[in-house]
Amino acid sequence: MLKDTPPSTLAIFFVSIALISPIIEEVAFRGMLQNALKKRISTTFSILITSCLFSFLHLSIHAGISNLPLFFSLFTFSCLLGFLYERQRSLFAPIGLHIMFNSINLVSILFFK
Fold it and tell me: CAAX prenyl protease 2/Lysostaphin resistance protein A-like domain location, by residue (predicted)?
């Protein structure tokens, strides 16, 4: 599959998944949703609710029950991003960590599976 894919397509795919998506997701989930929820509920619950939504939106509807391990790992990762955002009071660290996470996963999927 990879050998038949033009390099420009691979580059666009990698940039989209590894760089653009984490920035958009962190602005949306941490910067907007988590902050909006914090105005109504505690910081901890806003992180938990944001992390639940983040995790659900990353699941495959076709995978069914096999999504559970993925859900819990994404939920844990999202909680980490949420607490990091609160501690740093900035999106830079969560965005950087999210970019690293997506990049490592993308490289492992593309080249080691």
Answer: 8-103
- In the numeric block, the tokens 């492992």 are attached to 108
pLDDT at residue 1 in the model: 59
Token couple for 36 = 């909006």
Mean residue pLDDT across the chain:
93
> Does residue 20 sit within a domain?
no
Range of the domain at 99: 27-112
CB 26 within 8 A of CB 81: yes
Q: How many domains does the chain have?
A: 1
Mean pLDDT of 16-22: 95
